[in-house]
Amino acid sequence: MRDIKHIWIFLLFLFIGPFSYAVETPQCASSTPTSVVKTAIDGVLEALTKFPCREDKSPNCEKQEKRIHEIATRFIDFDQVSKLALGRYRRRFKPKEMEEFRDLFQQLLENTYMKKLRDYSGEKIVFENERRLNEYKVQVDTKVITSSNVIPVSYRLFKKDGQWKVYDILVEGVSLLKNYRQQFANILRSKRPEYLIRLLKKKLKTLDQ
C-alpha cells in the first residue's frame, strides 16, 4: 500500500507558483517552470519551519494560514483554475455566480490542503524532467521519496503575462483538477449552479469545525 498521505502536502503548491519566503519578488522573465516549482517547495518548507503548527487556532497556525492565503491570492489565477474545474458547465454560471464559485473553490482548496500540509515529515523530492505540453503549457515531473515508497508527482504550469503558474498537479498520474472537474460535472448534469455553490458552503462549514 502506497504511503499517499505524505504527498498531500505538495498539492498545496497549486496555490504557490513563483514564490520564495526568502525573496518576496515576482519571478523574473528568465524563470523556468522547474525553478518556479523548486522555489515554491523551498518556500513552503521554510514556512513549516518558521511557523510550526501543532494545534489548530494557535498563533503559528493562524500566521501559516494567512501566509498561504496571501500567496494563493497573489500568485494563482483562480479565474482560470475555476473555469477549468467546471469545464463546459461554466457556461451555465452567471457572472456573479462564477465569482462566488471561484471564491468558495479557492477557500475549499486552501482549507482542505492546509491541514495536509502539516503532515510533512522530511520526505525527499527529486526533480526528474521538464517537458512541454504545448506552446504555453509545461509539465515538471518529480518523485517524492518516503520511507517506504517512491511516488511520482507532476506539476503542470501555464504561461500568462510572461510568468509560469501552476494550474494542476498529478499524483501517480491522477490529476487534481480532473478529479474536481468530474465531481462538479456529476452534480451539474442535473443541478443548477446555485446548488453546487450551496454544497461548497456546506463543505467549508464542515472543514471549519
From TrEMBL:
One Pfam family per UniProt = MlaC
Coiled coil start-end? none
Task: List the PANTHER family.
Answer: INTERMEMBRANE PHOSPHOLIPID TRANSPORT SYSTEM BINDING PROTEIN MLAC
Full protein name: ABC transporter substrate-binding protein
Name the source organism: Dissulfuribacter thermophilus
